Amino acid sequence: MTPRTPRIGRDGPARLLAATLLLTGAAAAAFALAGRGSARDEAFQGLVGGLGLGPTPTLGRCDREFDPRAYGACAHRHEPFPGCASCPAHAGE
Amino acid sequence: MGKLAAIARTGLSSVLLHPLRSAATVACLVAVLAPYVAASGVAAGLMDQMEASVRGGADLYVSGSRFGRPAPIPAALADAIASIPGVTRVTPRIVGEVALGSAGVPAVVVGVPADGLSAGAEVVEGRLFRAPYELVLGAELSRRLGTGVGHRLPPFYRNAAGERVCTVVGVFRADAPLWEANLVFTSLETASAIFDQQGLATNLLVTCAPGYRNEVHAALRRMPELTGRDAHGAVGARITSRDEARALLPGGLRHMDGIFQIHFVLAFAVGIPLLMVASGVGLAERRREAALLKATGWMTDELLLRGFVESLLLSVLGASIAVLVAWAWIDLANARGIAGIFLPGAEPSPAFRVPFRLVPVPAMVGFILSFAAVATGALASTWRAGTTPPALALR
After folding, report:
1. Mutate: best of B358, B370, B371, partner A, most A CBs <10 A
2. 3-state SS, residue B193
3. Which of B217, B244, B271 is the last residue of a domain?
4. Cβ of A68 and B252 within 8 Å?
5. pTM of the predicted model as reported, rounded to 2 decimal places
6. pLDDT for B254-307, tens place per residue?
7. Of A34, A16, A65, A47, residue with least CA distance to B13
8. How far apart are CA B194 and CA B119, in angstroms?
9. What ipTM is given for this predicted complex?
C-alpha cells in the first residue's frame, strides 16, 4: 500500500506564495492600525490631574501598581513582613 | 538564477506536499509567538497611556509624610503654595479607596474642586459633576454595580455629619485610559464627606509657569508650613516632580515586561523542541524524500536550499498569523477572557479599552528565533540525509 500524496496543481506554489504575501501584508497593516492612543487619553488626564502610572486599574492590590505619585511606595513595603513580602502585586521583589 | 528559482519553487511545493507537517509547524509557531506579540503590545500600549498620564498631570505632586510614609496634607496649604513665584495653579486632590454595594465592589474615589473643571467632558457619557454628591463612575464600576446616568446610589459611607444619597451624572467612556475603570470621580467636598476627612487632601497638584519648576520645587522644600509640626508631632512633605514620575515609568513597565519575557522564554523553551520535531528532526519521511531526490541527481546544497525556502515560508506564515491573532484578540476583541493576565486586577472581559500598540522589534525577534528553530529542524534532517548514501538513507 503506497501512502497517498496530495495533488498539487500547477499553480499551487504560486497560490501559496500569494496567500503568504497577503497574510504578511495584513500583519503589516495591523502594525499600522493597532494602538489607538487618542486625544481622549489627554483629556482624561487633564480632568483628573494625572492619574495612573501602573498596570492595575484598582487600588486594592498595590498602591504603587496604580499610581506611585498618589501614594508613593507600596503599603506593604515594611509590614507585616519587610520587602513587600505580603504584597499581592510584587511579593518578594 | 533560473535553476535557483526552480529549486526554491520546489520548497513551496514541499509545504503543500506535507500539509499535516506544515500545519503542525505553523500551529506551533502561532502558539508560541501570539502570546508574546500580544503581551509586548499591551506593555507598549500601557507605556503610551502612562506617558499621557505624566504629560497631562501636574508639574509637582505634594503630599504629607508621617512615619516616612505618604500622609494626607491640609488642603488649606494650597493658598500658601500658590503665592510662590512661578506657581500658576494649585489643585487639592483626594484619592482613596471605598467599597460599594452589598458585594463590596472596590472603587477608587478621586475628588477635585468642581470649579477647576474646564475641559474633559468628552470622555464622559452624561455630564461632569456640578453640585455636591454628584458622581461620575468608571465604565467597569458602572457595569458591576448595574447603574447608569441618572441612577441614585444609597449612602455607602459613614460620616458623623450624616450620609447623603449620591447621583450618578456621568459614566466614563470605555475608550478612556484603563485607570477610569473603577473610578468614582467627584468634587473635593463630596470626597471629603465620603472619607469623613474635612480639610485634608491626599495631594496638592502644583502647576508651574514654564521654566519655574525647579525653583518652585526648591521653594517647597524650604517652606516652613510644609515641614512643620501639628498636635501629633512633626509633619514632613513628599514632593514628586514630573521628571521623577517619568523616571518611574520604565521601572514599573520593566517589571511587567520582564514577567512577560520570562513567560516567553519558558514558552519558547518548550516550543523549540516542538518546532524542531514538527519541522523535521527525526522524521523518516523527510529523510526518505531527501534520499530519493539525491538518487535522482540533486546535490546536497540544492536540498538545503529547498529546505531553507520551505522553513522560511512556514515561519513567515506562522509569524504573520500570530500577529493577526494577537491583534484580533487584544485590539478587536479587547482581550476578552485574558485581560486579567496582562492587567492585574482587571476583569477577564473588561469594560475599559485594553491598551495595545503593536511593536515591530519584539515581533521581529520572535520571528527570527522561530525561523531559526524551524530551519534547524528541517535543515539538520536534510543535511544528515543528504550526506548519507541514498541506499542507506532509504533503508
Report:
1. B358
2. helix
3. B244
4. yes
5. 0.81
6. 555 566 666 666 666 666 766 666 665 556 777 788 888 888 888 888 888 888
7. A16
8. 25
9. 0.78
